[in-house]
Amino acid sequence: MGSPTTAPTTLSAAAAVDALTEARERTLALVASVSDEDLERVHSPLMSPLVWDLGHIAAFEDLWLGHRFGGQPLLHGELLDVYDAFETPRAGRGELPFLRTAGAREYLDEVRAQTLEAIATGDIGDGLLHELVIRHEHQHNETMLQTLQLARLSGYEPPLRQPGDAAVYATATGLELIEVPDGPCTIGASDDGFAYDNERPRHRTDVRGFLIGRSPIVNATYLNFVEGGGYERREWWSDEGWSWKEEYDITHPGGWTADHAAEWRLGTLEPLDPYRPVVHLSWFEADAFARAHGARLPTEIEWEKAATWDQETQSARPFPWGEDPPEPGVHGNLDLLGAGPAPVGGHPAGASPYGCLGMIGDVWEWTSSAFGGYPGFSAYPYREYSEVFFDHGYRVLRGGSWSTRIRISTPTFRNWDLPERRQIFAGLRIARDL
């Protein structure tokens, strides 16, 4: 096709099988202890029933690998509309005729058997669609974990990797700033390997010098904002943010609660760890916090430059710390799918070229940027992945969270959500002009 969004991947058939298998094991382990009733229930109007996610994962693989790549008839063509994420908003998915638990699990097995048979009898071409399907399942793991946190199911324990002890319990508050000098930098994914359409084309741009937080803002720092009247001081809020806060009586981050002793805790009654990054913030809250501290949110271009740009070599690193993909517990908190991140600053090996900590894998970080296409954007493989969300009020998030898979957590990956959303594992990093 010639578009930079169609660059071949390095995925072999054997690697595709391994990655598909591992992704499915993680998906099923995530819900292994959840009852059929809880899988099928709507836990929040912001989220799908968990069993809808299971059926959607199967339908996506059926469409892209079985049907469009393999040329096979759809296994459940009658359910194509039911599992169309763009045509079926989350708030209404509980009313759809989706497959119940046994049927969804059977569909997952059927479509995977078809995929593996096709790989065994042929080749995977450039591997692009197989990589797309693998990453799609990874992304739904994080979405399902958001649902599980909102559901607060009694006795639920994520069965997967938990955060280990941080190498360094740093004293970072999130208010310490690092200077990033002015000058050109390259933004976006390279032409090699897999990337989503909104990450390309890669382009050169100039960025004026700025200051950016050495780490994300931690709970203790945000608690000072809450207890210092952060949700009462009108001058710190945008007009739209204040209206949202007032309408929904927002007084603290999502998931926080106060017990009879007025000690802040998480919604699970777990004590609030002062050194962990604050999470479940809306863009409105992140923006208000930054304003209260004489700061602002970084643009996504500033964020990417701070994460990857090496001033000495005038080149971008694939990851903040170098060429190799990150390792959980060494370079960051990412890929845990457990109870949450380790304390901020606990992974100094994951520092960016400028010394910023936790830019990959602590929490998604809100930026000031509206979600849109880069100059020369070309939709691939379908408009509904990115283009239909451009210029509709969505804000860009960067970095990945502790529950984001390593395959997704690249410094060029662009997440997006509406400014009022708090179900996402999102926090903030502040910035200032020089």
Describe the 3D structure.
The strands form 5 sheets. A 4-stranded mixed β-sheet has the order 11-10-9-12. It has a 3-stranded antiparallel β-sheet with strand order 1-4-13, with helices on one face. It has a two-stranded antiparallel ribbon with strand order 2-3. It has helices spanning 13-30, 36-40, 50-69, 101-121, 128-151, 219-227, 239-248, 283-292, 300-308; strands spanning 177-180, 183-187, 203-207, 210-213, 256-258, 264-266, 309-310, 315-316, 364-370, 395-398, 415-417, 426-427, 431-433. Residues 1-8 have low confidence and may be disordered. Helix content is 29%, strand content 11%. The radius of gyration is 21 Å and the shape is globular. The chain has 434 residues and is α+β, with helices and mostly antiparallel strands. A hairpin with a 4-residue loop joins β7 and β8. The protein has 2 domains: 4-151, dinb family like domain (Four Helix Bundle (Hemerythrin (Met), subunit A), Up-down Bundle), CATH 1.20.120; 161-434, paralog of FGE (formylglycine-generating enzyme) (Alpha-Beta Complex), CATH 3.90.1580.10.
The CATH topology of the largest domain turns out to be paralog of FGE (formylglycine-generating enzyme)
Average of per-residue pLDDT values: 89
Question: What proportion of the residues form beta strands (DSSP E)?
Answer: 5-15%
Shape: globular
- Secondary structure class reads alpha+beta
- The fourth-level CATH homologous superfamily of the largest domain is paralog of FGE (formylglycine-generating enzyme)
Give the N-to-C terminal Cα separation.
Answer: 44 Å
Radius of gyration: 21 Å
* Order of adjacent strands in the largest pleated sheet: 11-10-9-12
Number of helices: 9
Top CATH class of the largest domain: Alpha Beta
Assembly classification: single chain
Which segments are poorly predicted (pLDDT under 50) over 5 or more consecutive residues?
1-8
Number of strands: 13
Order of helices and strands: HHHHHEEEEHHEEHHEEEEEEE
Main sheet record: 4 strands, mixed
Q: What share of residues is helical? A: 25-40%
Going by CATH, the architecture of the largest domain would be Alpha-Beta Complex
Indicate how many domains the architecture comprises: 2
